TrEMBL record:
<keyword id="KW-1003">Cell membrane</keyword>
<dbReference type="InterPro" id="IPR036878">
    <property type="entry name" value="Glu_permease_IIB"/>
</dbReference>
<keyword id="KW-1133">Transmembrane helix</keyword>
<dbReference type="InterPro" id="IPR010974">
    <property type="entry name" value="PTS_IIBC_nag"/>
</dbReference>
<dbReference type="InterPro" id="IPR003352">
    <property type="entry name" value="PTS_EIIC"/>
</dbReference>
<dbReference type="Pfam" id="PF00358">
    <property type="entry name" value="PTS_EIIA_1"/>
</dbReference>
<dbReference type="InterPro" id="IPR001996">
    <property type="entry name" value="PTS_IIB_1"/>
</dbReference>
<keyword id="KW-0598">Phosphotransferase system</keyword>
<keyword id="KW-0418">Kinase</keyword>
<feature type="transmembrane region" description="Helical">
    <location>
        <begin position="69"/>
        <end position="86"/>
    </location>
</feature>
<dbReference type="InterPro" id="IPR018113">
    <property type="entry name" value="PTrfase_EIIB_Cys"/>
</dbReference>
<dbReference type="GO" id="GO:0103111">
    <property type="term" value="F:protein-N(pi)-phosphohistidine--N-acetyl-D-glucosamine phosphotransferase activity"/>
</dbReference>
<feature type="transmembrane region" description="Helical">
    <location>
        <begin position="12"/>
        <end position="30"/>
    </location>
</feature>
<feature type="domain" description="PTS EIIB type-1">
    <location>
        <begin position="382"/>
        <end position="464"/>
    </location>
</feature>
<dbReference type="InterPro" id="IPR050429">
    <property type="entry name" value="PTS_Glucose_EIICBA"/>
</dbReference>
<feature type="transmembrane region" description="Helical">
    <location>
        <begin position="287"/>
        <end position="307"/>
    </location>
</feature>
<dbReference type="InterPro" id="IPR001127">
    <property type="entry name" value="PTS_EIIA_1_perm"/>
</dbReference>
Length: 635
């Protein structure tokens, strides 16, 4: 459990690094300083959205491979949770806790389902694409549960708040303790709202009645301040000293890395009183320290109350508010003496506990927890990745690995040393050399898993696996070709007008004897490939071209009717049989004037010749530009 909490704490380091600058912008933009709304709005853009930032950061950090897909899952989890839960109870506001919970669930679901495989007809939705789907479904259920389970929690907080307000010094101490302890849940705002803006009344010199600890203090109420004063020693001295202790206890080789961060968040706390960057840096890494911090906050509040110190703030208990409200305070210098003592206590306790108990604060995390290249458990894919890298010229020849729906898209140093023969031997369907440094390898719908395995191997120099043979039990799990075409993967092959196949003036085509499809009345003079695939047939008479897509769909494009009798006149082929093509590659030049004068019709049927069990749906008709997508889909 502690190891899991430490992973959450480490996940927050990246978003926490953005907070100091945001805090300074927010504070300096306030009316009592520079009074520039633009600055405060810029800072508030981050501070006010801590929940979703934490959701993204935690999910990203929990991902075994630090993939951005996990960050997306965290964001989706938060948006689903917060949007759905208020439909049950519009008063619910879970604060930062909603982001933390969403990040945890999003990260765990990513690790569980990032490599899930489905039957061939659902293969597109496998792997990382499934993670947002299962995340949305899971968080819908969670929102339904919390919609009824969370309000009682808030009611308990309200009841505790009523006791705190009427319990004197112990109430002040309890307020300070719970104010910090409830920070990660966001419920500290419930107590703060009561204390700061509702507790007590005061009638000022103009006869105006004001309520709340902050408002009464700023209006000159001499009894206001006990619920605010004790925060100054903590925020100006205690937490910055905790940062110093964490730096002193960090591993020697990590100090340079975390030193700048700890200084910036410590200075932010001292100056502005914004402490979340510090607290979240150790809250999950070492929960014991956070409980100690909450207790020390309560003690500071009680001591300030006992010493009859009355000081307050309009924003937070940092040096800026200490100075700005100094004239309204009672015994404010006592807080500086308290602060020095608080700093010493924080440093001593934090350093002692960190070193003595080997607590995992920033700079002391276990190194093995940094590994983001966890084994996927699929040895077959790993072995195939090894052979694919070697066929591409080895790890030293590969500069970058990317992929689309069915193809590896690679940047290499020398495309000439890539072996198409070896690639095909280990499962590739084809190789396209775009230029001297860019190649594409047709893999099929399993490309995502292979690309991830290759990236992991390239990060380690592609070491030779223990066995070079795919385990027998995994041979049957290789993803098969899926005879489908998504709407966004098929582009209009030529400028022209789409007509139903039944309107093509040729009975063989019109009655789908060769397969389903559609017709085009062309107006352009160049035919382009509508898909990524391979040219499997170029008729000697040049009037028709056959293409098989990367997903196994066979397409016949027959330009005009009875154009076979023209013996190639009016056509100029631009590709060869066996050539790999991408959607938008030019296939054939047409002389429409000649064809219109010498052929019965220029209507061009586009036929899908090997669909068995799949359905073709034509989505658009009428005049369309070449390259237009969402023409059709096959599923």
């Amino acid at each position: 459990m502690f190891g899991f909490l430490q992973k959450i704490g480490k996940s927050l380091m990246f978003p926490i690094a953005t907070l100091p600058a945001a805090a300074l912008l927010l504070r300096f933009g306030q009316d009592d300083l520079l009074g520039i709304p633009f600055l405060s709005a810029a800072g508030a853009g981050i501070i006010d959205n801590l929940a979703i930032i934490f959701a993204i950061g935690i999910a990203f950090g929990l991902a075994h491979d630090s993939n951005g897909g996990a960050a997306l899952a965290g964001a989706i989890a938060y948006l689903v949770l917060t949007s759905a839960i208020v439909t049950i109870n519009e008063s619910i506001n879970m604060g930062v806790f909603a982001g933390i919970l969403s990040g945890i669930i999003g990260g765990l679901l990513y690790n569980k389902f990032y490599n899930v495989k489905f039957p061939a007809w659902l293969a597109f939705f496998g792997g990382r694409r499934f993670v947002p789907i299962i995340t949305a479904a899971t968080m819908t259920v969670v929102a339904g549960i919390l919609g009824y389970a969370w309000p009682p929690v808030q009611e308990m907080i309200d009841g505790a708040g009523d006791w705190i307000l009427n319990a004197g010094m112990f109430g002040v101490g309890a307020y300070g303790f719970f104010n910090r302890l409830l920070l990660p849940t966001g419920l500290h705002h419930v107590i703060n709202t009561i204390v700061w803006f509702d507790f007590g009344t005061f009638t000022d010199a103009t006869g105006e009645v004001v309520r709340g600890e902050i408002n009464r203090f700023l209006k000159g109420d001499p009894t206001a301040g006990p619920f605010l004063s004790g925060f100054f020693p903590i925020m100006m001295f205690g937490l910055p000293a905790a940062c110093l202790a964490m730096y002193a206890a960090a591993k020697k080789e990590r100090k340079a890395i975390i030193g700048g961060m700890l200084f910036s968040i410590g200075f932010t706390s001292f100056l502005t009183g914004i402490t979340e960057p510090i607290e979240f840096s150790f809250m999950f890494l070492s929960p014991l320290l956070y409980v100690v911090h909450a207790l020390l906050t309560g003690v500071s509040m009680m001591v300030a109350y006992a010493l009859d110190v009355h000081h307050g703030f309009g924003f937070s208990a940092g040096a800026i508010d200490f100075i700005l409200n100094y004239g309204l305070a009672q015994n404010p210098l006592v807080l500086l003496v308290m602060g020095l003592g608080t700093g010493v206590i924080y440093f001593a306790i934090f350093y002692f506990l960190i070193v003595k108990l080997d607590l995992k604060t920033p700079g002391r995390e276990d190194e093995d927890a940094e590994d983001g290249n966890a084994d996927t458990g699929n040895k077959g894919i790993d072995i195939r990745a090894y052979h694919t890298i070697e066929a591409l010229g080895g790890s030293g020849n590969i500069a970058a690995v990317d992929y689309c729906t069915t193809r590896l898209r690679l940047t290499v140093k020398d495309a000439d040393i890539v072996s198409e023969k070896d690639l095909k031997r280990h499962g590739a369907m084809g190789l396209m050399k775009i230029n001297k440094t860019n190649v594409q390898v047709v893999i099929g719908t399993a490309v995502e898993f292979l690309a991830d395995a290759m990236k992991n191997r390239l990060a380690n120099g592609n070491p030779t696996p223990e066995s070079l043979d795919v385990p027998a039990e995994e041979l049957s799990t290789e993803a098969e070709l899926v005879k489908e075409i998504r709407s966004e993967d098929f582009g209009m092959p030529i400028d022209g007008e789409i007509i139903p196949l039944s309107e093509v003036p040729d009975e063989v085509f019109a009655k789908e004897m060769m397969g389903p499809g559609f017709g085009i009345i062309p107006s352009g003079n160049t035919l382009y490939s509508p898909v990524d695939g391979q040219v499997v047939t170029v008729f000697p008479t040049k009037h028709a071209i056959g293409i098989v897509t990367d997903t196994g769909v066979e397409i016949l494009i027959h330009v005009g009717l009875d154009t076979v009798k023209l013996n190639g006149e009016g056509f100029e082929t631009l590709v060869e049989q066996g050539q790999l093509v991408q959607r938008g590659d030019a296939l054939l030049k047409l002389n429409l004037t000649y064809l219109g004068a010498n052929a019965p019709s220029v209507v061009t049927p586009v036929i899908f010749t090997n669909l068995t069990g799949q359905e073709l749906e034509v989505l658009k008709t009428g005049s369309q530009k070449q390259g237009t997508v969402s023409i059709l889909k096959i599923q």
